Amino acid sequence: MDSVLVTGGTGLLGRRVVRALAADGHPVRILSRSPASPPVSGAEVTVADLSTGVGLPEAVAGATAIVHCATDPRNSRAVDVEGTERLLEAARDAGRPHLVSVSIVGIDRIPVTYYRAKLAAEEAIARSGLPWTVLRTTQFHGFVEELLGRLVRLPVVPVPRGWRLQPIDVEEVARRLADAVTAEPAGRLPDLGGPEVFPVAELVRDRLRRTGRYRPVVEVPLPGALSAALRAGANLVPGNHSGGRTWREFLDGRSPSPLPEG
Predict the structure, then answer these.
(1) CATH class for domain 4-138+170-188?
(2) Pairing mode, if any, of strands 164-165 and 198-199?
(3) Rounded distance between C-alpha atoms, residue 13 and residue 102, angstroms
(4) Alpha helices in the chain (DSSP H)
(5) Cα(196)–Cα(30) distance, rounded to whole angstroms?
(6) Total Cβ atoms within 10 A of residue 177
(7) Left if phi > 0, otherwise alpha if psi is -120 to 50, otherwise beta: which for 184?
(8) Which of 4, 97, 139, 238 minimizes the number of CB atoms within 10 Å of its CB?
């Protein structure tokens, strides 16, 4: 079986990728900035830093595939752009492993600094000379719930009018990335979205129902290029729905978080 290095292998997506690869019988090595316990027994942890390049040659040595999940929205230039370029250079020197990377739907159409960094990382992968596969997906259930959790604590919940989201199960994305490791390098795969598309207002009301509390939800028009892109559905993949848990199944499986009184 392919020996696979997983960057970001202790994160939300990465640790699930590690489990999926290990279940398939792959020897797995996890790239981590600091010593950490692996999410599955038998996985190896190697300390390396994408933002500086320290430890990368040792991390990629012997890997026949790399699943690149590491990211840092707060430091995207150093990690997502320059860090990806450092990883690619180390991979070329180590024998040209298959590079499988996760990305985000709409990064070429939504004017956000982090998305521009993700697009630059994709472009670096495409011109790297390595065999490569990139999968863009919509936002994970947990990320959407975290964002909504901040909103629903307000006495009146404002939501952007016309914005829609297509939350996806992180386990489904991990499975797709693990499958891509043993498939032929495919370049950019078809974008993948969650099972259903929801107006943000409906997601908020779902989140409120889960707490058993009432908050007025008010849709507010937002100006600007970002809002226009989201109203146009630049973050959606209506023609390519995934399997996995739906949004409401995800909520049903979570312990309700009480809201403050008032």
Answers:
(1) alpha beta
(2) antiparallel
(3) 10
(4) 14-23, 56-60, 76, 82-93, 113-126, 141-151, 170-182, 200-211, 225-231, 247-252
(5) 32
(6) 26
(7) beta
(8) 238
User: Do residues 186 and 133 make contact, with C-beta atoms less than 8 angstroms apart?
Assistant: yes
Report pLDDT for 213: 80
The three-state DSSP-derived secondary structure of 68-122 is ECCCCHHHHHHHHHHHHHHHHHHHHHCCCCEEEEEEECCCCCCCCHHHHHHHHHH
The answer to whether the CB of 164 falls within 8 A of the CB of 108 is no
Mean predicted lDDT score pLDDT of the chain: 93
For 127, counting Cβ atoms within 10 Å of its Cβ (0-12 exposed, 13-18 middle, 19+ buried), the class is exposed
| Phi, psi for residue 222 in degrees, rounded to 5 | -115, 130
pLDDT confidence band for 253 (50 / 70 / 90): confident
How do residues 9-55 score in pLDDT, each as one tens digit? 999 999 999 999 999 999 999 999 888 888 888 899 999 999 999 99
Is the model's pTM score more than 0.90? yes
Round to whole Å and give the CA distance between 2 and 98.
10
The backbone region for 246, taken as left when phi is positive above 0, alpha when psi lies in -120 to 50, beta otherwise, is beta
Distances (CA, A) of 37 to 31, 42, 49, 61, 69: 11, 11, 17, 21, 17
13 closest CA partner among 229, 192, 199: 192
pLDDT confidence band for 262 (50 / 70 / 90):
very low
Give the tens place of pLDDT for each residue, 167-211: 999 999 999 999 999 999 999 999 999 999 999 999 999 999 888
- The Cα 262–Cα 152 span in angstroms is 12
* Ranges of each domain in the chain: 4-138+170-188
pLDDT given at position 257 = 43
